[in-house]
Specification:
The chain has 510 residues and is α+β, with helices and mostly antiparallel strands. The protein has 11 helices and 27 strands. Strands 4, 5, 6, 7, 13, 14, 15, 16 and 17 form a 9-stranded mixed sheet that branches. It has a 6-stranded mixed sheet with strand order 8-3-2-12-19-18, covered by helices on one side. Strands 1-11-10-9 form a 4-stranded mixed sheet, with no helix packed on it. A hairpin with a 3-residue loop joins strand 10 and strand 11. The protein is globular, with a radius of gyration of 22 Å. The chain starts with 14 loop residues before the first helix and ends with a strand. The N terminus is likely disordered.
Length: 510
């Protein structure tokens, strides 16, 4: 199976891919030069390319899969000023002025997407919606109050909701009007087609395999060509290659989504975040040319560290079936996010003297942070300093604010490494079920073995080439996932996403 086809396999397909606009950009098969190269054709990369093109730069976009086929095409499709951790968490860790800057940056990005849709006539099911946060029980009523108070202090347009305002039982809640939703895949695909010209060329199926920065230039090598530029942008959700300074500051998580059709009842209009005990569920409706769906997103876990991913998806289906008349489950998918140690995304130069730029640490708020990142990086390249470039710059050092999360994530990684290398692995592949995988130990080597639908056993090295951790089997999405820094691979070892530049080594079984 080729990695570009992975997410089209039956049973694992985001709702956005069901209504894809499609893309057909060429493969890079020559050695070329430009001013800027953007690695990644999601919302961050395509927005970056557009802004830099407008500034007169010659831009190349290198997408490993298809435009929008990574995190963007497996996201929630929600556009909102709020943040996953809550306004109160940012105010507490920083101050009210920092929260004001965060709110302003995210509002500017939301407005930018809205104006782009209207100016370019992008057909992406864009609709204004209200955003709601509520506590279904008393466990999080205090959290809701804290979010409201912090938002009010920072000047956010946030209001309390009253009983009956939303179609979910709740103890208390807040809302923000004038938020939005869209099909993020259609948006990025059509934006890419719009900007693809002689001075902004987009290439698909052109995975970057090596990055060399030397004497003021950067060369990106792909399987069939190369690009040499002055500036390179890692618009890849997490930086590509060996960057432990950042990868040690990020907590990689997967969340899941399901889409259903209802047999009866109404489709709730809005984006609803509800706290239920120690879990939070996100629910919204989606309408494409009269086809209506109800979506639920949630059930996060560390990448590669949950034994039964199918359980996460089943929990989302159960949540909807307990509250709505679900007639059919049409789509199931997973998406990845990276949580920053100090609570804010890292955007800017990877080091003070480098012309490589990164954009990472978006948590589950990546569609808006991606647009913020594009503007921040564009401003940095043209030499424009703003309150956003100063707040989010990637080389900031916040040891006090980052210490707790930094220790938690790196102790977790150390524990995974010790467990995977010290605990014995099975040597028996005979009882691996069809379409299942398992890490085995054969002649002292750890192998990732998959039993395909034809009955053949396929094997790769189970050692992630990024930093040497042992990959784990993801039974919901049929992939090999690294539990340390979240590189993910197909059953053939091809790269799906994550920081690695190299695939898993294929092994021939005797």
């Amino acid at each position: 199976m080729e990695f570009r086809d992975l997410h089209n396999k039956p049973g694992v397909k985001s709702i956005w891919r069901s209504y894809s606009s499609g893309s057909d950009f060429p493969v890079l098969n020559a050695d070329i030069t430009a001013d800027v190269a953007v690695i990644g054709g999601g919302i961050t990369g395509i927005t970056c390319a557009r802004l830099l093109k407008q500034q007169g730069y010659n831009v190349i976009v290198l997408e490993a899969l298809k435009v929008g086929g990574g995190s963007t095409g497996h996201s929630t499709g929600n556009l909102y000023v709020a943040t996953e951790q809550g306004f109160d968490a940012i105010q507490s860790k920083y101050d009210t002025q920092t929260l004001k800057t965060v709110i302003s940056a995210r509002q500017d990005a939301l407005n930018s997407v809205k104006s782009t849709v209207h100016q370019m006539g992008i057909d992406c099911d864009f609709e204004p919606r209200s955003w709601y946060l509520f506590a279904a029980d008393e466990n999080h009523t205090g959290k809701i109050e804290d979010v409201y108070e912090a938002g009010m202090a920072a000047g956010a347009d946030i209001q309390k909701i009253m009983p009956g305002d939303i179609p979910f039982k709740h103890q208390n809640g807040v809302k923000m009007d004038n938020q939005a939703q869209f099909n993020p895949l259609r948006y990025v695909q059509q934006l890419a087609k719009n900007i693809n010209t002689e001075n902004c060329r987009i290439f698909e199926d052109s995975r970057v395999e090596e990055i060399v920065e030397d004497n003021g230039s950067i060369t990106l090598k792909t399987g069939q060509g190369s690009v040499t530029v002055k500036f390179a942008i890692h618009a890849t959700h997490t930086p590509k290659g060996f960057m432990p300074v950042y990868q040690s500051l990020l907590g990689p998580y997967r969340e899941y989504g399901v889409a259903v059709k209802l047999g009866s009842g109404t489709y709730p209009q809005g984006t609803f975040w509800g706290y239920y005990g120690n879990q939070r569920f996100s629910v919204r409706s989606y309408n494409h040319e009269g086809d209506r769906y109800l979506l639920a997103v949630g059930q996060p876990h560390k990448v590669g560290q949950h034994e039964n991913n199918e359980e996460n998806i089943m929990n989302l289906e159960k949540f909807l079936k307990e509250r709505f008349d679900v007639d059919e489950v049409t789509n199931r998918w997973g998406g990845q996010n990276y949580k920053p140690a100090d609570g804010l995304p890292y955007i800017g130069r990877k080091s003070e003297n480098s012309n490589q730029f990164i954009a990472t640490g978006f948590s589950t708020d990546g569609l808006i942070w991606g647009v913020v990142s594009a503007q921040v990086i564009c401003d940095m390249i043209v030499g424009k300093e703003t309150e956003y470039t100063k707040l989010f710059h990637a080389t900031r050092h916040n040891p006090v604010k980052a210490a707790g999360k930094f220790m938690e994530e790196n102790l977790n990684n150390a524990g995974q490494i010790l467990k995977d290398y010290l605990l014995p692995k099975s040597k028996d592949m005979d009882d691996i079920a069809v379409e299942e995988g398992r890490v085995l130990e054969v002649e002292g080597k750890k192998l990732a073995v998959y039993h395909d639908i034809t009955g053949e056993m396929k094997a790769c090295s189970a050692i992630c080439p990024h930093m040497g951790c042992v990959v784990h089997w993801n039974n919901a999405e049929k992939t090999w996932d690294c539990p340390c820094h979240a590189s993910r691979f197909t059953t053939d070892g091809c790269i799906i996403e994550g920081p690695t530049l190299k695939p898993l080594q294929k092994i021939t079984l005797s």
